[in-house]
Amino acid sequence: MFNALLLEKEDDRTKASVQSIDEARLVDGDVLVRVEYSTLNYKDALAITGKVPVVRTFPMVPGIDFAGVVEESSHAEFKPGDSVVLNGWGAGETHWGGLAQKARVSGDHLIPLPEGLTARQAMAVGTAGYTAMLCAQALERHGTAPGDGDVLVTGANGGVGSFAIAILARRGYRVVASTGRSSEEPRLRELGAAEVIDRSALSAPGKPLQKERWAAAVDCVGSHTLANVCASLHYGGAVAACGLAQGMDLPASVAPFILRGVALLGVDSVYVPRERRLRAWASIASELAVQTIEQVASEIALGEAVDVAGRLLQGEVKGRVIVDVNR
Ligand code: NDP
Question: For position 26, what pLDDT does the model report?
Answer without folding.
Answer: 92
